[in-house]
Design brief:
By secondary structure, the protein is of the alpha+beta class. It contains ten helices and nine strands.
Length: 387
Amino acid sequence: MNSLNPLDLYNVRNLLSEEERMVQDSTARFVDGKVLPIIGKAFEDARFPRELIPEIASLGLLGSSIQGYDCAGLNGVAYGLICQELERGDSGLRSFVSVQSSLVMYPIFTYGSEAQKQHWLPAMAKGEAIGCFGLTEPHGGSDPANMKTVARKKGGDWTLNGAKMWITNGSIADVAVVWAQTDDGIRGFLVEKGMKGFDAPEVHHKMSLRASVTSALYFDNVHIPEANVLPNVTGLKGPLSCLTQARYGIAWGAIGAAQACLKEVLEYTKTRELFGRSLSHNQAVQLRLAEMARQITLGQLLVLQLGRWKDQDSMQPAQVSLAKWNNVRTALNIARDARDLLGGAGITTEFCPIRHALNLESVITYEGTETVHQLVIGKELTGVNAF
């Protein structure tokens, strides 16, 4: 009998197409060769490794699911595998790609004018322009309908006032997709770096996503030309559809973080000796490792099915909520338990579980908290909105 892959007990890889495997392998080589050697130090130093952006772009990882505009035009499963491998490196790196692809390029492609698409998408695919997504506000993020940021029509153009918080890529972004209340409902605005009255200071003192840029966005009478308004969407459908795309990638990405933790603790327990034998010879340790593998396997199958639905254009937002909730919770539990099995060594960045555990504390909160996703499923089960 062939031995099983400890990180893929159900041979999910065998269910992938040749192109999907090629995408996974090329992303994995990048992570192994360029990300893992530097990411622990970058996390310690609270530094986003911007030097990786050109190679990320050259691999076609930015806006990978978009057809045309110099984008790779890959399917949804391939995009999921990209997220999985990147988050195996670090949640901050996957967050960068998620925001660029799902929260900025996606709304421009889906709701933007042809001029907006031509101007931004090729540059963003090449990594020559960086984007961020402004929805969450300082007073709270789980109720986007309670938005305080306002845009008013002034002549033929707009004036934007308000603030956004916890914005990935904010201070390095060339353009922010900002959602604001208008007299006609919520609209999307392309706010460009350097516009008078627009400021994007970085958030410091983070204990999570340290290898990622997090910022606030402030708008003080920012003049927005009509040409910078997304013309083809009004209302919460715009930002919520973007969040569905991002949550889909997160559900895949969390599996990568969990796999990284299991891989490291498997290696450690084989070589660490206590009471005359290696840790891996203890029943209690094997039970914990088996539980990690069980949860990873379930999560892998969950997102693969979700990806196939996405590629059939039949994926439902509630199904994405279930996958995001399940897989991030799974990954966080595995990271914490792997840290414990590493003992005192597990609190250092020489091993990855503590870094993944700290990152996942953010991942389980952003793009909808765990409670929000539980209530989404509760509404599907009962037909009652309990928000």
